[in-house]
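Dear all,

This email documents one entry for the complex benchmark we are building for the journal club exercise. For each entry we list the sequence lines for every component of the assembly. Then comes the predicted three-dimensional structure of the complex as a C-alpha cell string, followed by one or two observations. Please use this as the template for your own entries, and keep the labels exactly as they appear.
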Amino acid sequence: MKEDQKPKGKINISPGAIATIAYQAAIESYGVVGLASKNLVDGITHLLVKDPTHGIEVKYEDNQIYIDIYIVVEYGTRIKSVATSVANTVRFHVEKSLGLPISEINVHVQGLRISNPD
Amino acid sequence: MSIPTNNNRRANRRRTLHRFPLDGQAVKNLTIAGMTWLKTNKQLVNSLNVFPVPDGDTGTNMVLTMQSAIEEIVDSPERNTGKMLHAVAHGALMGARGNSGVILSQLWRGFARALDGKPALTAPGLAAAFAEARDTAYKGVVRPVEGTILTVAKDIAAATEAALKKTDDPIKILEAAVHAAEVSVEHTPELLPILKEAGVVDSGGKGLFFLLEGMVRWINGEPLDEALVSAQPLSAMDLENTLAAVEEGQDYEIVVDFRPNGPLDLQQYYSALEEMGTSIQVGEGDGMYRMHIHVPTEKRYEPIDFTMTLGTVTNVAIENLMAQMDEIEEQAGGPKLNLMPVEPGQIAVVVVAPGPGIAGVFASLGAAAIVEAGKQ
C-alpha cells in the first residue's frame, strides 16, 4: 500500500491502481502485441477473470515502487528498442499521474507473435 | 526561385530517371537523399516530440535508424530493387532506436516485402509497397494511437492508391505520397489532443514526411543540406550569447512573444523577417512563439508591427545593442566562455563554478551551462 503522509489524513494508492495506469501505457506502446501471464496460475486466473492489470506487477517496498511488465512483442521488431520504449512510456505515465518516482521498471519479454514471417 | 543551373540539373535527373527503370541503385540514391533531408531537419522533428514521452528525441532516433539502414547499402552494387530494399529494411531493423525508429523499421519491412524480388520500382509496385508498409506497421501494436506516424503511413497508402488511377509514373506516385504526408501531418493535432494542447504536429509523422520529401527534392535537384525553416523549443533559444555576434546594422535587439491567430507559416514568417534584420530565432512552446531579431535603428518597430498582424502580441522587449556592447567592452570581463551547444534530447553538463577561472576550465571540458555560485 502506497502511503503519503499529510498533516490531516493520508492518501493511499493501491498497487492495483498503479498497475492499471501501467497497463494502459504498455498496451499502447509500439511493438507490444500483448501482455503475458507471469506463470501458469496467473494465466488460468486470467482466463476466468479479465482484470485490467494483466501482465503487470507492482511492488511497494521500503518507500520504493517496483514495476514488472510481462509482454509479447511483434516478431521482426528490434526487441531491445521495444522493451526500452515500453519502460520509458510506462515510467512517464505512471510518474506523471502519481507524482512519485518509480525505482525500477523491469520488462520481461515472454514471447513473440509472428504475424508476418519473412 | 531556382537558378538556371539548378533547372538544368533538375530536368536532367528527371529525364535520366524516366529513361531508366528505378532499379536498386536508384532506390539507394533515393533512400540516401531521404535520410540526408531528414537529418537536415532533425532539430525541427525533435522539437515537436511530445508524444508518447516528451523527450525530444524523435528526429535523432529516426536519423540513427536510417543511418544504420544506409550503412547496410552504401557500398552495395545491387541492381535488384527488392534485394536493395530488403537490405534497407534489415539495416533499419538492426539500428531501430526508440518508438519512432521501431515503427520506421516496420514500415521499411513491409515496403520491402511487397517488392520482394522486383527488379525495378513501378507505379503499381510503389503503391502496393506503401499499402504493405501501412499494414505491417499497424500489426505491431495492439491499440494503435491515431494522429501519429501510423496515421500518416495510412494516409500515404490511400493517396498513392488513388494516384495510381491517374498515372503510371512512379515519380508522380512518390510526389503524391509526399503531398499526402504533408496534409496528414498537418491534420494530426485534430486526432491526438495532446498535440493540439502543445500546439505541435506529430513528430514521427513529420519525420516520415521529410524522409519522403528528401527523395522528391533529390529528383528535382533541390538542395538537401539546408533546412527551409528552423524552429526550436523555447528552452533551446540561446538569447544570452547572441550579443557576441553583433555586427554593423544591428542596433536594436527585438524580442516579441506572441500567440498566432491561426497556424503560423514559419517559412513565410522567416522570409518576411529576413527583410528586416538578422540573427533571427523563432522559438515555440505551448502555442506561444518567441521571436528574436537584430535590426537597424530605422527598422526597430517593423518586426513588432508585422508580428501584430499575425496574432496577439503578449510581450515586447527592445534593447539597444550598441549601448550594451560599449558597456561590455568597458567592463572587459575576461575572455568569453565557449560553452557546449545543447540539442534537445541530449544529455548535457551543468556546472556550478565559483569563479571565472574554473568556469573557463569547465567550459573547455565541454560544460553546456555554468552557474556562478559556490563562493563562501
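Observations: The interface with chain A takes residues 52-55, 93-99, 101-103, 105-106, 109-110, 113, 136, 139-143, 145 of chain B (CB under 8 Å). Residues 170-191 of chain B form the longest helix (22 residues).
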